[in-house]
Design goal:
The protein is α+β, with helices and mostly antiparallel strands and 319 residues long. It folds into two domains: 8-172, Immunoglobulins (Immunoglobulin-like, Sandwich); 184-314, no CATH class. The protein is 20% helix and 18% strand. Strands 8-6-4-9-10 form a five-stranded antiparallel sheet. The chain has a three-stranded antiparallel sheet with strand order 2-3-7, with no helix packed on it. It has a two-stranded antiparallel sheet with strand order 1-5. Strand 2 and strand 3 form a beta hairpin. Helix 4 packs across helix 5.
């Protein structure tokens, strides 16, 4: 075994459907207690994970690693210690502003036994986290219908070593049928698939061309709730326009447009300078994100599918 590998000998595969399994002790690494991971809903391109710090807390935040199961096995069921293009890495150290869930911590620097839920594959608009360039052209989204391995550890401080590694967990992202939804990453990377009836698109009080919408989708959030909400609103409207059942998201789409309307004629960056607090937009953004990911609503579309004309594509877009 070479020094390039992190020594993780307890490679236990756990599916999301299992409530528990026999596991081996975590690999002892340092002075922080090893955190624990609990897996929540799996989306089309993301995995929801609740991180709970041990009795010593995680005062410098935590890091999550992930890798396709096929790459993990090919690498001898070991993690890359110094990073590799096949391995995704996200270090959570600051203050989150987007994917906060009710009643949870407001900082990635966790106290003893404190928990927070994060969404691997959906970190493009999140603050307080640094990621590698893994699958950067898709904004770090996970691949659809793919088995992944995950592990985590508490971060080191200048004087204290990191914790041991958690056990390794296995999860599979989802594919779906025709009455279905795509993520913002899909729409951003497949402009040729946009339904013509969606264009131009109204967001709030303003109309946008496809070129302008693609500019918005490529705009980092930088703490601006108008941008993060617009990312999900664009995707939601495209999904509705292609025929996805609107019942799970129509009220959130209306709320999103209402909130963007408060900016008047000032358009969303990088087209304009409309700025809303993430505290004002996060719940609406999350509602549309869950719809686009397939956690709510009709479910997910396969990554590659035939384009078909349906009655739903001719429906008027809900605004």
């Amino acid at each position: 075994m070479t020094p390039r590998y992190a020594l993780v000998v307890c490679a236990v595969a756990v599916t999301l459907a299992l409530a528990g399994a026999n596991v081996m002790p975590a690999f002892a690494q340092g002075d922080f207690d090893t955190p624990t991971l609990t897996f929540g809903p799996t989306g089309l391109a993301k995995q929801t994970i609740t991180v709970t710090a041990g009795p010593s807390g995680a005062s410098e935040g935590f890091t999550i690693w992930w890798m396709k199961k096929s790459d993990f096995i090919a690498n001898g069921s070991q993690w890359w210690l110094y990073g590799d293009p096949t391995q995704g890495e996200a270090s959570f150290t600051g203050t989150p502003t987007l994917n906060l869930f009710p009643g949870e911590a407001s900082n990635f620097k966790l106290g003893p036994n404190e928990s927070i839920t994060v969404e691997i594959g959906d970190l493009f608009d999140e603050s307080g986290v640094s990621t590698t360039a893994w699958r950067s052209s898709w904004d770090g989204e996970l691949e659809y219908g793919t088995d992944y391995m995950f592990c985590a550890f508490a971060n080191a401080s200048p004087t204290v070593y990191q914790s041991g590694f958690t056990d390794n967990f296995e999860a599979q992202t989802v594919t779906g049928g025709q009455n279905c939804t795509f993520t913002q990453g899909y729409w951003k990377n497949h402009p040729e698939a946009w339904p013509a009836s969606c264009l131009p698109m109204t967001l709030g009080s303003n109309s946008y061309t496809q070129a302008q919408l693609l500019q918005i989708l490529g705009q980092p959030t930088q703490g601006n709730g108008a941008v993060s909400m617009a990312h999900q609103l664009i995707a939601a409207k495209l999904n509705l326009c292609q025929g996805a059942n609107p019942s799970a998201v129509s009220s959130c789409v209306t709320t999103g447009d209402t909130k963007l309307s408060t900016c008047g004629a000032n358009k969303i960056p990088s087209i304009g300078s409309c700025n809303l607090s993430t505290g004002n937009t996060s719940s609406t953004t999350q509602c549309m994100d869950n719809f686009n990911q397939g956690i709510t609503g009709p479910g997910h579309c396969a990554e590659t599918r035939a384009r078909v004309s349906t009655w739903g594509q001719l429906k008027v877009l809900h605004r």
